[in-house]
């Protein structure tokens, strides 16, 4: 990873803090993972859009920080039909923590993806999750980290943004690939990114469309383009564009999170 000059300043700062974070003081963890591909397929089989709902207290592109208990947020998402959860563990720019993930995974029975900027093997051992995000652009030894994640029982979800990164992910042995519609160089979101990369992926890969899915029509568009899973954060956490109209939003933030999730899982 040597292109921090080409990244949005917020992303370069995220990477600096990921590099500086200490490694856990223990050996390799072992995980008995809940299957993410199976959970997504089960959702589709019973008529729900396969949503991976993200517990994302804040981000560089969000105003303010959600103060609700992360476990309550996660349970509200599952109640709304989420097939799986994504939980931020990045503390400095997303308000996440490994402890949030540990508590959420204990409280729900759906698969939980660890959302962070994992750069080296020891960082895998910070907390047990069912799946772990590895960002192709930022990981120097992608094959090594995919293998290290698999050895521990984690399901690696390798994030790409273009066809070249998709090839690198497949060469590294990725079986679950996320195509991020958010360009981390400029932080702009464009759903055409998924549409241009998805046709290049083999059929046996589980493909996840990430970022920028704000409304049910976006969710349908991504599924039509080949998405097996939909990673959705902001539209569930704040629901600005998920709600059809502001009158349908109530005063209870957790009910709104459930309702935002439900609208998207019913897409
Ligand atoms: O979300 C951000 O502002 C962000 C900024 C810099 C790097 C990464 C960022 N997001 C990471 C994500 O992948 C999203 O949280 C996830 O795909 C959900 O996206 P969205 O539904 O658009 O909140």
Automatic annotation (TrEMBL):
Catalytic activity annotation: 1-(2-carboxyphenylamino)-1-deoxy-D-ribulose 5-phosphate + H(+) = (1S,2R)-1-C-(indol-3-yl)glycerol 3-phosphate + CO2 + H2O
GO biological process, one term: L-tryptophan biosynthetic process
Region (Disordered): 40-67, 242-267
Pathway(s) of this molecule: Amino-acid biosynthesis; L-tryptophan biosynthesis; L-tryptophan from chorismate: step 4/5
Domain Indole-3-glycerol phosphate synthase per the UniProt entry, residue ranges: 30-239
Pfam families: IGPS (PF00218)
UniProt entry keywords in alphabetical sequence: Amino-acid biosynthesis, Aromatic amino acid biosynthesis, Decarboxylase, Lyase, Tryptophan biosynthesis
Entry's EC annotation: 4.1.1.48
Database matches in InterPro entries: Aldolase_TIM (IPR013785), Indglycph_syn_Halo_TrpC (IPR054875), Indole-3-glycerol_P_synth (IPR045186), Indole-3-glycerol_P_synth_dom (IPR013798), Indole-3-GlycerolPSynthase_CS (IPR001468), RibuloseP-bd_barrel (IPR011060)
GO molecular function, one term: phosphoribosylanthranilate isomerase activity
Protein family (similarity comment): Belongs to the TrpC family.
Name listed for the protein in its UniProt record: Indole-3-glycerol phosphate synthase
